[in-house]
Amino acid sequence: MKGKVLIVDDDPKIGRLLKFKLSKADYEAEYFSSGGEALEKIPRIKPHLIISDIEMPHMNGYDFCEQLRQDSRTANIPFIFLSGRTDASDQLEGLRLGADDYVCKPVKIDFLLERMAKVLERAARAKSFKSLADFSGNLSQMNLNDVMQIVESNHKTGELEFTTSEGRTIGRILFRKGNLIKAQFGVLEGAEAFYGLMDEEEGFFEFYGRPVNEPEQITITNMAALLQGSRLIDEAKSLYTIIRDLNVLMVSTAISVPPEVEDRSGKDRIHKILAMVEKQFTASEIINSGKMSRPRAASILAELLRNDIVGVFEENDDTQKTEQPYLLIEEWLLKVLSNIEARKMTGILEIGRRRVRERIFFNEGQIVNAFHGKAVGQKALYRIFAEKGGAPRFTPMPVVINYTIEQDLTYLIEDGNREVKTLKNLRKMTSDNPITINPENLEKVSRIKTRPGLKDVLTLVQQHGRVQDVIDASPITDLRTYNHLLTMVKLGVISIGKSASKEA
């Protein structure tokens, strides 16, 4: 027997069918038509998992879940909403109240069984770390990401304390109902302290359950904090490919910092780094200064070195060359995409702090669609690849959207990087150039009629008079549209003139 499952649904047909199907799958299932009745029977049944509808009379599913989470005897029972409500707001509300998963009706039993198994697996993993004093462990064996998953899945309220092997306290994180609200690491506080603790690979942690009445200091979600920390740590690693020895002195090599660099790394943080450079700090002293977390300081220092804003002071004439990565797509984004694929996550990755709204949709870790402003699909994904900076936020939820992307991640990265590299200079040179059609050649060229891609782009040329306008309006990727334009130039069907700025 895989476990006891309690089903709550006001529709007896659905409830009894679920009970029958789960019993055949080797679960011991009990069905109740209301949340009130289920609350009375839970102490006797002691279920390993609860599945509940939302829209029910007398007590809806939200109220039912909330009452369970407020009672210490039932607070840790894994809970899944099975509902006909498909709106993202309903799903987020269910997860906010403490549900472990949200499955939309109608649902295939195999899919539901798979989601149930994952929820029970997470719960079993969390219980294996429980002790009379909650749980503890070694950072060399379990990273902060794993610890956060245990705290979140058990909706823990309390303090996570970090100590050295000698027993000295180095930091702490506070949680309320599984949500990260405050962190302290040395002199750092808030999200910056959390990123510093993520970088710790040695020492011990202990979780103490206790009431937490301190004000909320960190307002982003657990997932957003972990994604941002992972990005910073990944960017920090690139510093070690640029300079071999962190004990070297740094020197300023530029009068000013470009606005795009300030936007990516933060103006105040950059000025703190540059102030330490002026005081002749070594790279190691800058990273460990305590002005910001080590991952943050190392990532900014790497950014300044790549943009020739600071350099390495050397007494001889041998200048140290920085390695240029082959991929133009930012490393933190590649890391996030790989992480989502490896964990087979379903939901939406939104990248904030960019000029337009950008979202990537995933189903079981695979990219299925993307939005970049008004652009959709593969075209939008490659535009997301081409941009810099941003703040990632992943929201787990069922994805109800047309699947327009079928290729795997490896292909998308290789093809997208090729497009980004090719268009890097072409956009600057020709985006404002006007296009004119040569009508005398239209009838002479049979290839236009036999190739749908060329015909589609030519139709857009007739509607728009500028290269960038045609590229924006085209449903295919920017590079493929540009190649079609070049083909028609060679055939003599269209002509691309000089932009007004160049003529001036």
From TrEMBL:
Q: Which UniProt keywords apply?
A: Phosphoprotein
UniProt GO BP: phosphorelay signal transduction system
Domain Response regulatory stretches: 4-120
List modified residues, type 4-aspartylphosphate.
D53
Annotated Pfam families: DUF4388, Response_reg
**Coiled-coil regions listed in the entry:** none
Q: Which Gene3D superfamilies match?
A: 3.40.50.2300
Which InterPro entries does the UniProt record give?
A: CheY-like_superfamily (IPR011006), PatA-like_N (IPR025497), Sig_transdc_resp-reg_receiver (IPR001789)
List the PANTHER family hit by this protein, alphabetically.
Answer: DOMAIN GTPASE-ACTIVATING PROTEIN, PUTATIVE-RELATED-RELATED (PTHR36304), DUF4388 DOMAIN-CONTAINING PROTEIN (PTHR36304:SF4)
Protein's name in the database: Response regulatory domain-containing protein
